[in-house]
Amino acid sequence: MVSQRIKDELKAEVLELKNKGITPGLAVIIVGDDPASRVYVNSKKKACAEIGIYSEEYALPAETSEEELLALVEKLNNKDDISGILCQLPLPKHLDEKKVINAISPLKDVDAFHPANVGKIMIGDYDFLPCTPAGVMELIKESGIEVKGKECVVVGRSNIVGKPQAMLLLHENGTVTICHSKTRDLKEACLRADILVAAVGVPELIKGDMIKEGAVVIDVGMNRLENKKLVGDVEFSSASEKAAAITPVPGGVGPMTIAMLMKNTVRAATLNK
């Protein structure tokens, strides 16, 4: 499994850093008791323990004020044993996500959401990559698929996945189309894709008849249906008949996202030493 290989490599790297007196540290902030957020936070803490990264969790009540949250971020910005800060999104409605992201030091922004880091990704000169798009690129690379010259279609334009994903494919010389809710003929656009990345948050939106024979399909979606079943943005059963390679949900991109977060935290430790 690619994610496990990355974690094993990081484990060795962390050991090396510790021998030099550097211990990577990750602070995770969770506000409120969103069950999905709690699952993500627990898996991040577990990965830290596995790799040897020091971690701290700050579980704040849902009614935490913006002032209190920003004061905590400022404290962590100045804490020497913390190399990376992650604030689990979404935040409760009364908190301004943008303000919180902007308050995190760009050198400790292991999610790569700060405008300074977003700008660096745009020009291709970056310290950190957003974890999910970086994980997608690792999966493509590991599969021996060359992006150069390929038709790449990204369905979704979020700041967290869609936009940075398109930039990373572009940096690898892909010809990139970004689709979204206002795209006139989504099926026609998807059928052109040699590499299709679905990151739109709509359960099983992409059907098999929207996929070109032999395409590579990467499903970033994580949607829970009413019957509690977890599905992606791609209808796996019909899509797998057409695709040359396809990621499952769960177990495809999810573990990669966590592995790349660990990679960013280790990188931050070397930048902040």
What does this structure look like?
The protein has two domains: 7-106, Leucine Dehydrogenase, chain A, domain 1 (Rossmann fold); 131-254, Rossmann fold (3-Layer(aba) Sandwich), CATH 3.40.50. A five-stranded parallel beta sheet has the order 5-4-6-7-10. A three-stranded parallel beta sheet has the order 2-1-3, sandwiched between helices. It has helices at residues 2-19, 35-51, 66-77, 97-103, 115-123, 131-142, 162-171, 186-190, 236-239, 253-271; strands spanning 25-31, 54-60, 84-87, 151-155, 175-179, 195-198, 216-219, 223-224, 230-231, 245-246. The mean pLDDT is 95. It has 273 residues and is α/β, with parallel strands linked by helices. Strand 4 (151-155), helix 7 and strand 5 form a beta-alpha-beta unit.
Q: What's the CATH C level of the largest domain?
A: Alpha Beta
Total DSSP E strands: 10
Shape: globular
Largest sheet: 5 strands, parallel
Count of runs of 4 or more consecutive helical residues: 10
User: Unreliable stretches, pLDDT < 50, 5 or more residues?
Assistant: none
Query: How many domains make up the coordinates?
Result: 2
Helix/strand class: alpha/beta
In angstroms, what is the radius of gyration?
19 Å
Helix content: 40-55%
Architecture of the largest domain in CATH?
Answer: 3-Layer(aba) Sandwich
| Mean pLDDT across all amino acids | 95
Distance between the termini: 31 Å
The secondary-structure element order is HEHEHEHHHEHEHEEEEHEH
What fraction strand?
15-25%
Task: Please name the CATH topology of the largest domain.
Answer: Rossmann fold
